[in-house]
Amino acid sequence: MIERGSGVAVWRQIEDSLAAQIASGALQAGAQLPTELQLAERFAVNRHTIRRAVATLVERGLLRVEQGRGTFVQDNAIDYAISKRTRFTQNMARQNLSSDIDILLSDTVPANAELAGLLEVAVGDEVFRIKTLSRVEARVVDCATLFFPAARFAGLPQVYQRQRSVTRALREFGIDDYTRRFTRVTARLPDAETVDYLGIPKNRPVLHVKSLNVDLDGRPVQYGITCFNGDLVQLVMEDD
Q: Where does the HTH gntR-type domain start and stop, copy by copy (predicted)?
């Protein structure tokens, strides 16, 4: 019940009320919040007041906003295992979570000095660049940019388009197994493109992960830069 003139701002009372419903389970993890209009009618306030209360709950990590879908009660973060053999599909399957990958872009670019060193090619050599968007249970959890040495994997973009999996694509080139040489994780604010892809506020840090996979002879097969939605994913370091 909202008490006007109580000395506590109305939006703060609404925030406390919704937080209490989340804590009690009346609003369950993953549940969609009523619309701003519905909440405004329930609490007999204007939509701006609701918007402020909801924004604060988002900042507290109790709610999340998914662009084009609505506002949801935050649920437990998805465990994403980082190990000697990190595999997106297997990570999700062992948690009984459905997943899929959208390909946003696929092209060829000349290797700069950094890419040349990582993929062990010459500066200026062609590398395949593939940008992807990963969903788990229909929620966008990460956007990634993958690089592959083009001379070694001629036609790989078409294979990846069909397979939607690095593991399955590389298998068609005779790479039956590969391992992670390094994984480097930092937290940083997202750029405008990442904000759009992940549907997150521009002031919400993402987990920025750089990784290099090599074949069993130690030759690089794929370098990746992935931005994880930190509200939905927690990285778990595992021994393989």
A: 8-76
Q: Is the pLDDT of residue 2 over 90?
A: no
**pLDDT-based confidence at residue 1 (cuts at 50, 70, 90):** low
Number of Cα atoms under 13 Å in the Cβ half of residue 108: 12
Overall average pLDDT of the 87-95 stretch = 84
**pLDDT at 95 exceeding the cut of 70:** yes
Nearest 5 degrees, angle CA 149-CA 224-CA 187? Answer: 155
Sequence-distant (6+) residues with CB within 8 A of 33 are 18, 27, 39, 54, 63, 70, 71, 72, 73
Residue 77 Cα distances to 10, 30, 95, 178, 234, angstroms:
31, 11, 12, 27, 6
Task: Tally helices (H) and strands (E) across the chain.
Answer: 8, 10
| Whole-Å CA distances, 68 to 65, 197, 198, 199, 207 | 9, 12, 11, 9, 23
Distance CA(185)–CA(235), nearest Å, equals 9
pLDDT tens digits, 36-52: 999 999 999 999 999 99
Q: How many whole angstroms from its chain centre is CA 59? A: 18
pLDDT tens digits, 170-221 = 999 999 999 999 999 999 999 999 999 998 878 888 999 999 999 999 999 9
Helix axes 47-60, 36-43, angle to 10 degrees: 110
Q: Which amino acid is at 151?
A: A
